[in-house]
Amino acid sequence: MKAFVEHANITVTNLERTIHFLQTAMPDFQIRHQGKNTKRWCHLGTEDSYIALQESEPEHVQTCQRKAYNDLGLNHVGFVVDNINEVSQRLIAAGFRNDDEVMDETYRKRCYVFDQDGIEWEFVEYVVSEPNLKNSYKEVDMTAKIAIVYFSHGGNTKQIAVKVAEGVEQCDVQPTLFEIVGDDIQAGRYSKTEVFHELSQYDAIIFGSPTYMGSAAAQFKAFMDASSDSYCKGLWRDKIAAGFTSGGSINGEQQQTLLSFFVLANQHGMLWAGLDTSVHVDALGLNRTGSSIGLVSSHNENGKLHPNDLETATILVYALPC
């Protein structure tokens, strides 16, 4: 059995008022037991957990000089509820102080309310069921997280991926490169399922693959197919997506590869970010191919990528959150 928090013991000035506060917020909280030893007390909660309330004797009540979140001691107690808006409305109607509006975050909603003793209580409503999302702290870390997932056979697509990462770093964001290699494909299926768990924690995913015979390389296509589990759970919904590809000629149907990335992103409910500049309007003459949907690169007869393509890769991030 895993250890869990069963109860917290809190001293209050008046049992009835604190019980009224907690039952206003959570009507399913019932008195499990109550009594009096040297002081009145009660256990209020559910069959699984509870708050132990102890009433202080009037002559011992002192004004608390403790500064929350600075001095030692308890800052607040948090409860998971089904509908936080209803909880907040009931407490405000009952006259309790709510210093903040309900905070609507990606995977949860929360608010903080003070009772008559100045004790702070937190109420949380989770809008997802997956534990990894419920435990996501992306709102705490305001820095965007950008993943670059790519396959490279001869090294050119990897060069582009590295340049894209350099552009991300120029925005003071640390990118993460996920390279797909041949050994990742088992029986035609991309096998590193843990990568999809990691990608669910990112704000943006940039896809990259060489174009072979008018489409993404089979190794990258295996990754696309294996993303179906993330699709079923909605793990990439509302993330930003972008893409890049490389080929052996300036027009070898590379945009078909980018279009397959675009379709994949839409299936996942992602928001696609293209290139908003081209050689015709860019002051530096970047994006020489004029591809708006994403970066198209190609190499010369010596197998070297065009310098303009490499430089263009560094600005692919500009349409992403950073």
Low-confidence regions:
none
The quaternary state of the protein chains shown equals: single chain
Total of DSSP H or I helical runs spanning 4+ residues: 9
Beta-strand content estimate: 25-35%
Mean pLDDT: 87
Largest sheet, in brief, is: 7 strands, mixed
Number of DSSP strand runs: 18
The helix-strand sequence is EHEEEEHEEEEHEHEEEHEEHHEHEEH
Distance linking N and C termini: 42 Å
Cα shape: elongated
List the helices and strands and how they pair.
Blueprint: E1 7-12, H1 15-25, E2 30-36, E3 40-45, E4 50-55, E5 77-80, H2 84-93, E6 97-98, E7 103-104, E8 108-114, E9 120-126, H3 131-134, E10 146-151, H4 156-169, E11 176-180, E12 185-186, E13 189-190, H5 193-199, E14 204-212, E15 215-216, H6 218-226, H7 228-233, E16 240-247, H8 254-267, E17 271-272, E18 295-298, H9 307-313
Parallel strand pairs: 1-4, 5-9, 10-11, 10-14, 14-16, 16-17, 16-18
Antiparallel strand pairs: 2-3, 3-4, 6-8, 7-8, 8-9, 12-13, 14-15
Summarize the structure in words.
With 322 residues, this protein is of the alpha/beta class. The protein is built from 9 helices and 18 strands. Helix 8 (254-267) links the parallel strand 16 and strand 17 (271-272).
